[in-house]
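Recall that a protein's primary structure is simply its ordered list of amino acids. Everything else, from secondary elements to tertiary packing, is in principle encoded there. The following example makes that idea concrete.
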Amino acid sequence: MVGQRAVRLIISLAGVALVTFVGSRLLPINPTTQGFAYLLLVLIIATGWGFFEAAAASVASTLTFNFFFFEPIGTFTIDDPRNWVALFSFLATSLIASRLSAEAKRRTLEALARQQDLERLYTFSRAILLFGNAEPFPKQLVQKLAEIFELSAVVLYDRRTEEFYRAGPSEFEGLDDQLHEAALQGTSFNDASRNRVITGIRLGSEPIAGLALQGAQMPDSVLQALANLVAVGLERARAEDLASQIEAAKRSEKLRTTLIDAMAHELKTPLTSVMAATTAFLADPNQALESKNELIRIADEEVKHLKEIIDESLETARLDSSDIQLQREPSNVGDIVREVVSSMRREIDHRPLEFTCDEDASIIAVDRRLMKLAIKQLLDNALKYSPADTPIEIKVHRSDGTATVAITDHGKGISAQEQKRIFERLYRGSSVQHKIPGSGLGLSIAQDIVRAHRGDLTVTSRPGETTFRLNLPAEQDGGRS
């Protein structure tokens, strides 16, 4: 800084010498014009560099003005007293003008700095609102803070999680104790020699975090505004986490309630059949053996059906976890579909069902139990949402290394907007949720199972025709995954 000031002083004095040489040798002019030339030079120096350089130029200009332009020329003596007044008036004018110019420059720079601080604070506050969920909120916060304010190091200690978050190209170590104290007591530390500051982050009157900054010093007002924004950001993140937890709890509770309701509804039919068979058996112990055997067969079938329902309900509950464990075994996809159709003969009843299967539909390694559950959900969906007199079409084929099960119904169709949400858990379209019984789980369960097999489940629909396609990579590794 001292070296720069010395260079500026030399250049300022050189400027005075140049103006003097031009006015006295190259372009001889009268003293008044020369005085204006000196004054213009002083104003330029004051505007560009500041008062110190301008004051030096003012004194130098006054001396050269006297020496080269007031009689007697070549001396510092002045014969005419009026010239003394003119000379001192020039000195005072140049000093005052340089002071005013330097002050105006300082205020301009301060205004620009305040504007830059406001722009940075605005950019930072806007960034807080746009943070995503890819990384922890405090980590994104310190990264954006270091980037926007061009800080070499930023460290945030979150009192709630007791974790440190760091950003910036420089290391900022050895201040953990001060950050702890700032987060607990709301105190501040300032190390001007190392351009470091530590401040407590408060939400209201309660300290919630400690923030350490290393880089260009910023005004206390900006630092306080920055701390307030960090506090608001941390509280926003906390509120969002709490809202997510509440929503997850609500969804989990809704899922449990839905499963219980669905299970109760599904259990009624086989239980009613079992009760009817046993009641008829007990009501007439002397009935024919053939009738007794028929009643026992009905009860036996319905008990098996009841077991299937319970097993599927338990499997559905387990699928609430994102970690689906597969027990793969080589299986013929066509045979899996046939088993599902056979197990749903009561639901299908007399519905027309068209089933076609390519001979080379392939044997692939899948979890047979889960795949049956997925296909059953799709077939059940087709049966529920299409008129009883319209056919259900099932096609199994293989193409380009993919085994596909396509199930088509001829119901009213699914709107484009609902197609975007149809695989969401617990979602049911507004046009059917109070007309057709269902839990809103079937399609999401099927999608989870298919994705666990590295496949995909898609839907295409238009009025009068809807097709769900279950696509599986034909080359599946066997064993457990």
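Residues 220-283 form the longest helix (64 residues). The mean pLDDT is 77.
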